[in-house]
Write a structure and sequence with these properties.
Blueprint (H helix, E strand, L loop, with lengths): L21 H12 L5 H12 L14 H22 L4
Length: about 90
């Protein structure tokens, strides 16, 4: 059945990215390098390369959030003591 109107086809275009992604290329090279090895061992090696280095944690009472909490508590106690002494409320 012929149509009475001429229908235009969708316009197509070709898109080429205009930026260079160094990280993506590095990942592709690593994948190619470890492609012939056992997949599980290659994944473990790749994960090890991209992990952030861990800082040495000091075990004990005064580490991290605990130390910060004690410092804040100490400053608050000093402020309250100063205000009580200034206004003779003690």
């Amino acid at each position: 059945m012929p149509s009475f109107f001429k229908l235009n086809k969708n316009k197509s275009f070709s898109y080429t990215p205009r930026y260079y992604d160094e990280r993506k290329e590095r990942l592709e090279n690593l994948k190619k390098q470890y492609a012939d090895e056992d997949q599980s061992s290659a994944e473990i090696r790749m994960r090890g390369k991209f992990k952030r280095p861990q800082r040495n944690k000091i075990p004990g009472l005064f580490s991290g959030a605990t130390l910060r909490t004690f410092l804040i508590l100490g400053v608050l106690i000093l402020i309250v003591y100063y205000l009580l002494k200034k206004y003779n409320l003690y």
